[in-house]
Amino acid sequence: MAVQFGHRFLATIALAIVVLGVMVALSAYGVLSNSKSLQSYGSVKAVNVGVYWDSGCTNTTSTVDWGMLSPGTSKNVTLYVRNEGNTAVKLSLTTQNWNPLSASNYMRLSWNREAQTVNLGSVLNATLTFSVLSNVTGITNFSFDIVIAGTEQ
């Protein structure tokens, strides 16, 4: 009888360990399934200005890969903008060609150089800030064009 009790006790302990393991696994799955990362990308179009990765303006920027961003987060990227025209220009930043189109409802791009004047041949460092709103749903990958323009004054 003592042997039977010992086997039942061990079987009960083993079952409890299995149940506990399943509960931990399900809870971990629940936590992970609520987490979302977003792949992102952005191409850069420059109008009347050059956009570069370096202050010496030798490495042209044509795309910005924002990497994986979670809802409610933002990321900064520093670029260098050079006036390549023949007169002073005022800078502006816009976005276009969102894919999917609904991504523009949940994501924002801003910078610290809106309406800044850039003299002929001058270079400014610009910080772009890309933000993903915390209520984003149904979007895992997206792309859009970043348009940096210099308008003659």
Give an overview of the whole structure:
The protein has 153 residues and is of the alpha+beta class. 21% of the residues lie in helices and 45% in strands. The strands form two sheets. A five-stranded mixed sheet has the order 3-1-9-5-7, with no helix packed on it. The relative contact order is 0.24. The model is unreliable at 18-35 (pLDDT under 50).
Low-confidence stretches: 18-35
Q: Which CATH first-tier class of the largest domain would you pick?
A: Mainly Beta
The helix count comes to 1
Total discrete domains = 2
Backbone structural class: alpha+beta
Going across the major beta sheet, what is the strand order?
A: 3-1-9-5-7
Mean pLDDT: 81
DSSP strand content: over 45%
Helicity range of the residues? 10-25%
CATH architecture of the largest domain: Sandwich
What would you call the quaternary organization?
single chain
H and E order:
HEEEEEEEEE
- How far apart are the termini? 98 Å
> What is the CATH third-level topology name of the largest domain?
Ctag/Cox11 (Pfam 04442)
- Overall form: elongated
- Summarize the biggest pleated sheet: 5 strands, mixed
The strand count comes to: 9
Radius of gyration: 26 Å
Describe the structure using short key phrases:
single chain; 153 residues; alpha+beta; Ctag/Cox11 (Pfam 04442); 2 domains; 4-stranded antiparallel sheet; 9 strands; elongated
